[in-house]
Amino acid sequence: MDDYLEGLDRALKKMPAGKGTHERFVIPAPKVFYEGKATVLDNFAGIADTLNRDPDHLMKYLLQELGTAGKIEGHRGVFQGKFTDDALARQIEAYFEEYVLCSECRLPDTHLIKNDRVLTLTCDACGAHRPVRKRKAKTIIAKDVIEEGQIYEFRVESVGSKGDGIAKVDKYLIFIPSTTKGDMVKAKIKKISGTLAFAEIVERLGKV
Ligand SMILES: [Zn+2]
Questions:
Q1: Neighbours of ion ligand 1 (CB under 5 A)
Q2: Are 189 and 197 in contact (CB under 8 A)?
Q3: Residue pLDDT, tens place only, 51-96
Q4: Domain range holding 6?
Q5: Gap from CA of 113 to ligand 1 centroid (Å)
Q6: 92 and 12, same structural domain?
Q7: Distance from C-alpha of 135 to C-alpha of 114, rounded to nearest angstrom
Q8: What's the CATH code of the domain at 33?
Q9: 177 and 117 assigned to the same domain
């Protein structure tokens, strides 16, 4: 009998605590308002927290999917351009399906592991794992929005005569030293001169 109880105790401890089942797991509805031409997702941090994912990762996803620029400001997410709460809710739901929900047992008790550049979703509840979908990287910059001192994501499209990688965004050519064609990078804009911009690499994101 003691063994049985101990076994039961162990089994219960293995059960995911709190937000254990999908039925009880509720993604907070986006609280959206507008500031000028920007969309503010007021409960961004709360949503990332509920999903138990890195806010930067969620933000990067949303920017890519919405095809805009933006940033995290404290607990808020700020997006250039106007997006409805429905549009944001759909993207967050898609993120949840792709990066949080176990496709085997449909529980959200999972974590992401990066192995040899492959991001894998591993389920804490059933042990299943799957690679997350490789998405086509999109340039995240809306028109005329690059600013000096800001960091953006770029895809290097060509190499200039002096060997610097060149990304194109709208009317701008952005020169990024130490990159080659196909590189995806995060780079900081050092200087904008007319339609030319000069950036410095902050992080390498891979190749496309
Ligand atoms: Zn599972």
A1: 102, 104-105, 123, 125-126, 128
A2: yes
A3: 999 999 999 999 999 999 999 999 999 999 999 999 999 999 999 9
A4: 2-131
A5: 15
A6: yes
A7: 15
A8: 3.30.30.170
A9: no
